[in-house]
């Protein structure tokens, strides 16, 4: 397969097309606008593809709901403020058990913030964001190659579980350029989506709905959703261990910070500090058992994120008090440097 030099946002867009995405609805916001621009240019060239710049983020997510209801592979993308506006629609989509892909290239916040990279949307992504007891599958790439690969996986997982999937990137990943090759992917087979609302000639109509005024009926819907989430937790946890075989100190990081953390692990080993890296790739379902297992062998954990401390809460729950869990982060779109992380590691190692 031929490698191509591509920007992260464009790699997501190209990978979505190769994965059979036929419907995209979005609204411009930096730092993900190049994704929309790429699809605006390429989708009209392809048969049965539909691109629309909606009048708002709220409109875009509800258009995704409609296209997904008809069985299409549908997608939207945005950044922090736009994802916030989409939350009601995301809750509706989850309640209706509809598959779709949502891309969030995070920027500094809260509020309008800035256009610099951040990881402060972790809570929003993995704890629900909108109303009700629902979950998104959340994938956290750390390179342009993974942006491409996980986009294909996102569409497949969405269809497999009839559930929205979020790709949680950041402004740096979206804007950076790296070599990428695109893997073969499955295509959408609408005929297998027997639940889709594509006409009811010769059969009973399919009803897609999230309004249940009878509490007994709504509880049954919720119980069915929880059963699905347990299945996802059982089958879909992904995590990378790097230099963890003999590690005494485990750095836990996701996304762009995991690349900085990996370089610090390499430097620390040269200094005689036995450090390792745990990188959650699925932020939900969170690889709690993997981290709990590591707590049996290590002396301490250091969680590093571009926020005030969000994933660190899930790490502490997984470690369950067995070992100390330290945190270091930067806020507002500021990047943590390898030197700052190394200083924290040396402090903990003493």
Structure, described:
The protein starts with a strand and ends with a helix. The protein is of the alpha/beta class and 350 residues long. It is globular, with a radius of gyration of 21 Å. The strands form three sheets. A seven-stranded mixed beta sheet has the order 3-2-4-5-7-6-12, with helices on both faces. The protein has a five-stranded mixed beta sheet with strand order 9-11-10-13-14, sandwiched between helices. Strands 1-8 form a two-stranded antiparallel sheet. It has helices spanning 8-18, 33-42, 57-69, 80-85, 87-95, 122-126, 144-161, 171-175, 215-235, 256-270, 288-294, 311-319, 338-349; strands spanning 4-7, 23-26, 50-53, 74-78, 100-106, 137-139, 164-170, 177-180, 239-242, 249-252, 275-280, 282-284, 300-305, 325-329. The model has no long low-confidence stretch (mean pLDDT 96). Helix 10 (256-270) packs across helix 13 (338-349) and helix 11 packs across helix 12. Helix 7 (144-161) links the parallel strand 6 (137-139) and strand 7 (164-170). It folds into two domains: 4-235, 3-Layer(aba) Sandwich (Rossmann fold); 240-349, 3-Layer(aba) Sandwich (Rossmann fold).
């Amino acid at each position: 397969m031929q490698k191509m030099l591509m920007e992260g946002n464009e790699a997501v867009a190209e990978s979505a097309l190769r994965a059979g995405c036929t419907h995209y609805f979005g609204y411009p916001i930096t730092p993900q606008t190049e994704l929309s621009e790429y699809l605006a240019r390429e989708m009209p060239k392809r048969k049965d593809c539909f691109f629309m710049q909606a009048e708002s983020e709220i409109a875009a997510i509800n258009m995704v709901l409609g296209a997904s209801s008809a069985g299409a592979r549908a997608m939207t993308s945005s950044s922090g403020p736009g994802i916030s506006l989409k939350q009601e629609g995301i809750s509706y989509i989850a309640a209706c058990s509809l598959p779709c892909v949502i891309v969030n290239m995070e920027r500094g916040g809260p509020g309008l913030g800035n256009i610099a990279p951040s990881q402060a949307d972790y809570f929003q992504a993995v704890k629900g964001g909108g109303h009700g007891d629902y979950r998104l599958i959340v994938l956290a790439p750390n390179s342009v190659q993974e942006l491409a690969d996980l986009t294909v996986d996102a569409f497949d997982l969405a269809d497999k579980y009839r559930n929205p999937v979020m790709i949680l990137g950041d402004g740096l990943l979206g804007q950076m350029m790296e070599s990428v090759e695109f893997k073969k992917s499955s295509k959408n087979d609408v005929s297998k989506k027997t639940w889709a609302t594509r006409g009811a000639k010769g059969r009973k109509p399919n009803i897609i709905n999230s309004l249940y005024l009878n509490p007994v009926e709504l509880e049954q819907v919720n119980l069915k959703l929880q059963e699905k989430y347990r299945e996802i937790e059982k089958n879909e946890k992904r995590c990378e261990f790097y230099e963890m075989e003999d590690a005494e100190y485990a750095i836990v990081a996701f996304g762009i910070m995991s690349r900085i953390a990996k370089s610090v692990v390499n430097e620390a080993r040269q200094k005689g500090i036995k450090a390792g890296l745990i990188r959650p790739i699925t932020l939900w379902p969170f690889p709690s058992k993997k981290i709990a297992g590591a707590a049996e062998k290590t002396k301490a954990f250091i969680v590093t994120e571009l926020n005030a401390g969000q994933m660190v809460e899930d790490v502490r729950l997984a470690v369950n008090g067995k070992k100390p869990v330290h945190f270091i982060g930067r806020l507002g779109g500021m990047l943590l440097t390898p030197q700052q992380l190394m200083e924290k590691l040396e402090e903990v190692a003493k």
